[in-house]
Amino acid sequence: MRIAHVIRRLSFGDWGGTEQVVWNIAKAQKAAGHAVRIFATTALCPTRSETVDGIEIVRFKPIYPWWPMPKSLVAELDRKGGNPFVPGLGRALKDWRPDVIHCHAMARLAELCLRTAAKLGVPSVVSLHGGGANVPGEEAASLKAPTRGRLPWGKLVDYAMGWTRRVPEDFGGIVCVGEDEYQHYRACHPHVMFLPNGVDCDLFARATARHAPRAARHAPFSILCVARIDRQKNQRLLVDLLARHPDVAVRLVGPVTQPDYRDELAARAAELGVADRLTFAGALKPGSAELIAEYARADAFVLPSRHEPFGIVVLEAWAAGLPVIASDVGGLGRLCAAHPDAALTFAPGDAAALDAALARVKGAPDLRARLSAAGRAAARGYDWRTLAARLVDFYIGA
Fold first, then answer.
1. Domain spanning 201-381, CATH class
2. Of the residues 103, 173, 277, 347, which has the maximum number of CB atoms within 10 A of its CB?
3. Coil vs helix vs strand at 142
């Protein structure tokens, strides 16, 4: 089968959860014998075409339909949002003639995939990665903030082209990362599946086994959070935690999708006098030696998200043998509830509950060992190879 994955951006130096899912699914599908190509924009990656691990990635320059459009705004929209037009992408899809088009974006990119699939007479599938069913109003407003007050000339083009924007309803199949979306769309669409995120258990187990045992280390107690620097992820809760726990250090790994929020975190750390125990480690390529080392040197993993459709990094932490503390929200809360022996949870934004969970983990080596063992066992049920095979079966029915 020839499988075309379409994603808004794919930059190995600036990574997020959606990119990680697409890349690992593509690799697993290729390993199973399918022809796979990834189509993306040049956002955060000027390289137009490259082949990585045997998978060809083709990129096209996005055009953000707002005026005025200074370079600073282009850079911000490259990181998150923008709803661009992508000239050339539709033609490239037609020329390659895939057997299925799998879209991992919404709005204009999704409609382009729909129209191209219809012209080719092939199935179209869309994945809902963003947890749109439970995005808080405050955050939804923050996504629109960069373009507020600018002329949306793209709407005139949409009208002229007759784009209807029935996304995701018009796709032949809808893949839901979050259960909220799954429950919603299964009631109104004939072909919907819930496909959780995955992990390469062997990679994390082999790599972390080469590092020194955590029990032999000394203070400070090291907390790791792997997530883009974004208000959705609520790293502010971890910065504030440092003021209450002088024996704790926090390392934040992930790309900056909201630069003003990164500045806010740094300013808050300076205000509290904890900047020396807060590290911004930047974006690290999934599966890289640098990322594995971050998991291996940590004592615990904390994900304090305000909303989360799943929480792929929790699977990584489990596979690496880390005790996990996570916000009990959305698909993340359900993931942890499905494996209650592998994680401690707290109400989103509840600093006191987070403190209590951290105190339990810090003070009980036996609890850390139990969480670690249960986490490794839980992660094995989410191997990428199994998930990719289920997805190919779903394509056939679309």
1. alpha beta
2. 103
3. helix
